[in-house]
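User: Can you help me understand a structure? I only have the sequence.
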Amino acid sequence: MKTRSLLSAILFFLFATAGLAQDNGYIDSLKRDLELAKTDAARLATLKELSGLYMVLDEAQADRYALQMLDLAEQTRDRKLMVHVLLLDAQRYFSVGAGNRDQAAKALVSAEKALALAKASNLEGSQAEAYVVLARIARNNGETDKALNYSNLALSLSATTEDDSLRVICLGSLGDTYLAKKERLLAFRQYLQALSIAEALAHYEPLKLSYYNMADFYYSLDDHEKAKDYLFKVHALTLRYRKTLDRLLLYRQIGTVYMGAKQYDIAMEYHERVLALSDSIHFSVTRVNGYISILEQYLQSGQTEKALAYFKATPDLTTFMQRANLEFIIFQTYGFAYAKLGRYDSAQYFYTKAEPLAEARANTSNLYNFYLHLVQLYNDLKKYDKSLVYLQKAYRIGERSGNLEMKQEVSQELDSVYQQMGDFKNAYIYNQRYHQYTDSLKLLATEKDLMLLEVADETKRREREELKEAQALHDRHNLQYMGITVAIAAVFIVLVMLGIFRVSKATIKILGFFAFIFLFEFIILIADNQIHHATHGEPWKIMLIKIVLISILLPLHHYLEEKVIHYLTSHRLLESKESLMSKFRSKEHTETDTEAEAHS
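Assistant: Let's start by predicting it. Here is the structure, written out as tokens:
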């Protein structure tokens, strides 16, 4: 039986909240901000932070702050804001309670209220946001068909708005749902479309979301290098936009990818970066993310004794799980570790404590894993009748969710347990089912390989199209630059010609004024591209360089314009032309006289 994760459901805790806490001083500062806030927007932002923060400190207090937030939104009678706050309330529950059935149920209530209000108010963009949250909740519950319906509704509604950021979110939601359904090529296409829109927008949040989606997609294909590529793009974004808190989540994600690639030394470096960065910015609560990642790595790499010792040595981790109503994971972790160490009495004790809590609170995935851990324990103890009870429970979960991998794994275990019990009839039935599911999964594996080729081809095609579009744009710009150059040259030729003939000074001055404006604006246009490229769009650098450039070009512009126009309007060109013509006529007469003498 393969090793299964105990902690994946809670690894992302706290990152949906805008503010994290170090101590009561920080909490007090938020409370002061709330008292001093002069606008509804400022009060709502602070209440959002406090309600999110208290979800891991004191849920009752978190509920009180959330209620204040909801009341304040109600008083504004701004329907869009009211929907937004209801969705914040849903995400507050869901962000901490992804592995907790009760919390997910509370999130669902708030999300459904938000959707009802958005529909009643004809707010299509807000409806799309609500469907995205509902799709996430459905995916968490293993209801992928329902999630697909919600995601499609969200995307269709987003198309009626002009909000490209919302469209990126909706495409990402649809991609997540297809990924949960193992329809990877469809997921890839949604993620790719979202990435194209995000890159065109060039805003932080859409880009970050799209890069994370692409990293998750490649991680699902076990293409760890591509997953790292996109995570390091997120890293570059967080540095460019100075998003220190976002790097806490990012380091945990990078560590997870390195764990998946079994590069445990590098993974541990990133887990420790989470701890170090938490200390450097004085947000000690976020150290829990680092603790969870390190514990997960010890368990995944088979270092059970280290995992057990580490778990006992980090009381903050157990405190967090208790506050998040995830006590069953505490007991399950101890049970799993003691079973691996062969201390079966201790393992049974902790699994017995965990079972009622898991059945009451765990979501589908966590409950399935819990049952399989118990099967492993009772198989080791040769108590096959008890193994059978939990295998049947696990099989029912697989049937309800339609998960082939679950059904294949449980069928294999049922075959083995029935054989140990001497029930060969049932063993044969489940052996047949195991082979059926294996064949189906092999077909999926073949499709996965084909899909990898399709993804690679799709990526190359997209790169070729982007290169072609970039070349076409480059050629079009070069053609425009050439046209502008010819136009400016033509204007100056006309200006010189006016100076040769007897034209009024006003006409020459007007044409000269526009000719020099065209010339120097063209110089600035060319310089702009180079400045933006050299400064990477940094506003203060652009401003500084332009001040220097203008301080040089402006006096030069005035000087050249004055000298050239003065020269042209003084009719010196006309005098030069007449002198030249007289010399030419004189030379012509001389040649004529010479020819006449020769003939005579």
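Now, to help you interpret it: The longest helix spans residues 424-500. Residues 8-24 have pLDDT under 50 and may be disordered. Let me know which part you'd like to focus on.
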